């Protein structure tokens, strides 16, 4: 119904393209007429074990997709969805070329496309601080008359580049990508509040001034903390673990209030800046599992589960007494992500029951003729004609992995690290190939020593 469009419109059974006429403002900054959903979901096909379809998907991306387009896109979104999808796709295409009868035609085309895209993102990093502009034109970079519009970016937007760009450098042997990402992370770290060790949410990339000083673990800041820890896991650089630990202590001291996570002012962390929470913070228990802090992860996940039981889904924002603040639910993956990692860490069948309830809600309230439609308001369960690429890239990936046995998978999932978009990057990127086994042992250690 949609190929080669960026997204499927599940109610009208057609594709969504990036056009001037059909413009939803910032919501469309991820679209670029480059078959977004296909790229974002290639490795989902590997997780599902469908190698013939994966072979076909890679072939379509290689033959049909180009990034030489006069379109302004979100640097953050195209990095995590498209660059991450290309890299994971390349890794698996190469793997199955060498270990199966599929992809025998493959010759590194996805990596070449990833490198091309990486170069197109580089103009965004030409800032005073090294923190990237929020948007870039894939064909023309950044025009001077557009600088003012791109100077403000969120902490998560600027701080969620290191995994993908470092992986690109290590796979392509082009160092500039990783260097730019490290500089951005270093600059962000230098802008933390030195007393509280908290970060704000929005900043000016040239002056380094904070525009929004709210500090939490949800929208606008979430994956920065995630990438501090995961940069250590994937790249083996201890500075990122040290930074994560300092941030984590601050979060647990100021933002964590029992099972709840409430935003505070970064300069006055004793004062809450909001009386509601947003759906994106549902990733946090999963990150706590990776860090080895199980007890608060279980407690926060249980709090979120109570929200799910009350509303069938987690609304985009909800109050401390679980009332709806913003009612939309675009079928986000974060709660299922945390459910999967908690089950993997505890082997508690409770999390399988949680997964079944979410699956039942998806089937009952989101499944439509041509796909799964976002819920416009959890109170009325009406649908919107949207299905973001992350629904297939993450939501159903984590749901499948929750119930899959290791024998059901054609890869060893413990040999990979999940990016914030649910893409799989191999742990051997941190070491030489001959030390690959040691890298795998590090991953297994994280889960066996919780």
UniProtKB/TrEMBL annotation:
Superkingdom of origin: Eukaryota
Cofactors, names only: Ca(2+)
EC number: 3.2.1.-
Gene Ontology molecular function, alphabetical: calcium ion binding; mannosyl-oligosaccharide 1,2-alpha-mannosidase activity
A single cellular component GO annotation: membrane
Subcellular location: Endoplasmic reticulum
Keyword terms, alphabetized: Calcium, Endoplasmic reticulum, Glycoprotein, Glycosidase, Hydrolase, Metal-binding
Enzyme active site: 77 (proton donor), 222, 316 (proton donor), 334
Class in the EC hierarchy, top level: hydrolase
Sequence positions that bind Ca(2+): 420
Protein family according to the UniProt entry: Belongs to the glycosyl hydrolase 47 family.
PANTHER family (UniProt xref): ER DEGRADATION-ENHANCING ALPHA-MANNOSIDASE-LIKE PROTEIN 2, ER DEGRADATION-ENHANCING ALPHA-MANNOSIDASE-LIKE PROTEIN 3
Protein name: alpha-1,2-Mannosidase
């Amino acid at each position: 119904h949609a190929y080669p469009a960026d997204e499927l419109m599940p109610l009208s059974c057609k594709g969504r393209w990036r056009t001037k006429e059909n413009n939803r403002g910032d919501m469309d900054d991820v679209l670029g007429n480059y078959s977004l959903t296909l790229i974002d979901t290639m490795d989902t096909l590997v997780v599902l074990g469908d190698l013939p379809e994966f072979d076909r998907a890679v072939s379509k991306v290689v033959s049909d997709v180009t990034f030489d387009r006069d379109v302004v896109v979100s640097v953050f979104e195209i990095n995590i969805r498209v660059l991450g999808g290309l890299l994971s796709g390349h890794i698996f295409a190469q793997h199955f070329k060498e270990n199966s009868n599929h992809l025998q035609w493959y010759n590194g085309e996805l990596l070449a496309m990833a490198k091309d895209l990486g170069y197109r993102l580089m103009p965004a990093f030409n800032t005073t601080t090294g923190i990237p502009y929020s948007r870039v034109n894939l064909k023309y970079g950044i025009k001077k008359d557009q600088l003012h519009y791109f100077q403000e970016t969120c902490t998560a937007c600027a701080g969620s580049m290191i995994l993908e760009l470092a992986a690109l450098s290590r796979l392509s042997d082009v160092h500039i990508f990783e260097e730019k990402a490290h500089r951005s992370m270093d600059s962000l770290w230098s802008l933390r509040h030195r007393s509280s060790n908290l970060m704000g949410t929005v900043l000016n990339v040239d002056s380094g001034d904070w525009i929004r000083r709210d500090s939490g673990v949800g929208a606008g800041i979430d994956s920065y903390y995630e990438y501090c820890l995961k940069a250590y896991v994937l790249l083996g650089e201890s500075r990122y673990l040290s930074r994560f630990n300092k941030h984590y202590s601050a979060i647990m001291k100021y933002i964590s209030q029992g099972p709840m996570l409430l935003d505070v002012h970064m300069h006055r962390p004793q004062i809450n800046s909001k009386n509601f929470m947003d759906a994106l913070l549902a990733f946090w228990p999963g990150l706590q599992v990776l860090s080895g802090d199980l007890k608060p992860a279980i407690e926060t996940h249980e709090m979120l589960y109570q929200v799910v039981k009350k509303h069938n889904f987690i609304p985009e924002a909800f109050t401390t007494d679980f009332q709806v603040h913003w009612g939309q639910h675009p079928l986000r993956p974060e709660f299922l992500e945390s459910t999967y990692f908690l089950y993997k860490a505890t082997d508690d069948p409770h999390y399988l029951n949680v997964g079944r309830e979410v699956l039942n809600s998806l089937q009952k309230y989101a499944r439509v003729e041509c796909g799964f439609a976002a819920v416009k308001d959890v109170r009325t369960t009406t649908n919107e004609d949207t299905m973001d690429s992350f629904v297939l890239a993450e939501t159903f990936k984590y749901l499948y992995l929750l119930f899959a046995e290791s024998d059901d998978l054609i890869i060893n999932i413990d040999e990979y690290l999940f990016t914030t978009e649910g893409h799989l990057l191999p742990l051997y990127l941190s070491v030489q190939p001959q030390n690959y086994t040691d890298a795998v042992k590090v991953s297994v250690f994280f889960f066996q020593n919780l």
